[in-house]
Amino acid sequence: MLATAVFEDRLRDAGFGRVAGADEAGRGALAGPLVAAAVVLPADHTIHGLADSKLLTPTRRTQLAAQIEQAALAISVARVSPERIDAQGLHRTNLALLARVLRTLPGGYDYALADGFPTPRMPAPVLGIRKGDQVVACVAAASIIAKVTRDRIMTRAARRYPGYGFERHKGYGTDEHWAALRALGPSAYHRHSFAGVATAGIAPPWATQPPEATNHQPGQEGR
Asked: Which of 8, 13, 63, 128 is most buried, most CB within 10 Å of its CB?
């Protein structure tokens, strides 16, 4: 499914000249920052193929990001560290980050469309749209910018934290990532508040004691 400018066109017709889209990347990752972007596209842009960044190949995302950066009237990008996510909680951090990219958007905005979540107490209206990154062009553009930015951050992080495979899975909970966590334990770049991360790599009692000395039953590892 490709995103369209239908929502933006209606808002522009209603007098909202600068319509911004906002979205984040990395919400469900086990490691790395949360990254958000806000984008204002011109009404006459010729970027074809805007869609939810998760549905695009890395090569196509990079190509579209370059086109968005060239065509956009304004772009704002910000990130939040894993430590702050752990301290403040994911949802609260997510809303604050979306608010930040909209507040710092060069030239401001008249109306904003965000993927999923409305953002309260803003200088101009912000409407949350379910699956906005799949149906709204400016939200899809923000999704792509946020995703490409975060992927580059995680590729660089792989050099600082070798062994986890950040350059491949970008911090998400793949089988490879969980296996590395069990072998190495969490790094300083992991989100320790996420389920299973803080205890990864800690051997259970039956790993160091004879089976008869524990109450462990086969098949309980995944509970």
From this structure: 8
